[in-house]
Specification:
Elements (H helix, E strand, L loop, with lengths): L4 E5 L1 E3 L4 E3 L2 H10 L2 E5 L5 H8 L4 E4 L24 H17 L3 E4 L1 H9 L4 E2 L2 H4 L15 E7 L4 H6 L3 E6 L4 E2 L6 E6 L5 E6 L5 E4 L11 H18 L1
Parallel strand pairs: 1-4, 1-5, 5-6, 6-13
Antiparallel strand pairs: 2-3, 7-10, 8-9, 8-11, 11-12, 12-13
Length: 239
């Protein structure tokens, strides 16, 4: 059976002039039976279109940057992180073609935020500054990653993949979804009410999670189920 191609946008580090992606994402896709195709971070929409026409699914990964709040009509807070306009442009142009072709898609961390903003939703710019009694969603460099529980909506795809309504997840983010975008249903929540996952309401395989299933997936049955189901959906497009 043919292996489906999965498009993944890259990171670009200006100081080192290095372009690439964290290996965890690539390893998870390869293990699940897909072939990762890295898409350069670029403002050239035609190049992005050429890449996306060749893939059968898209994984939007995390990023150390924040989405420019101008994209959801908000003024930047002082605690807003670093912006990288080309990454915003790349994700949004990829999503434009994902929508046109109805491709299966998974968004992780920054990826769920890109999906939400592309569909007209907004973000909490800084959880510690804006969420009352917030749990720890991000730790300082050098410290172990934050972990917290999430409550999952019954009957959701995430609940079926997780095999239950409560799981513990890792956490590396200071932003989150505020108002959900078009056809996105929140299906998982942190103890402080922060939205941790969304699914498409039209039946398409489009979902986003705020945590990082690509980290530790070898020992996580839920993460394995997420990636194998995603690749199964992409494989249907490669037939």
């Amino acid at each position: 059976m043919d292996k489906p191609w999965i498009g993944i946008p890259t990171r670009y580090h200006e100081k080192s002039e290095y372009i690439g992606q964290i290996r965890h994402y690539l390893d998870a896709i390869l293990w699940a039976g897909g072939l990762p195709l890295m898409i350069p971070t670029t403002g050239d929409r035609e190049i992005i279109r050429e890449y996306v026409t060749r893939v059968h699914g898209v994984l939007l990964p995390g990023s150390p940057t924040d989405i420019d709040p101008k994209h959801y009509g908000a003024a930047p807070l002082a605690s807003l992180g670093e912006l990288y306009p080309e990454r915003d442009t790349t994700d949004f142009e990829i999503l434009r073609h994902v929508e046109q072709e109805a491709l299966p898609m998974v968004g992780i961390c920054f990826g769920i935020q890109s999906l939400n903003v592309f569909r007209g939703g907004s973000l909490v710019q800084d959880i510690p500054a804006l969420v009352n009694a917030a749990v720890t969603h991000e730790t300082d460099n050098g410290r172990p990653p934050a972990r917290h529980t999430v409550r999952i909506a019954e009957g959701s795809l995430i609940a079926r993949l997780a095999g239950g309504s409560d799981i513990e997840v890792n956490s590396y983010h200071h932003q989150s979804i505020e108002n959900p975008g078009r056809n996105l249903r929140p299906v998982a929540f942190a103890p402080d009410g922060v939205i941790e996952a969304v699914e498409d309401t039209t039946g398409r395989f489009v979902l986003g999670v705020q945590w990082h299933p690509e980290r530790g997936w070898r020992d996580d049955p839920f993460a394995k189920a997420l990636f194998t189901t995603f690749i199964d959906q992409a494989r249907l497009r490669s037939v």
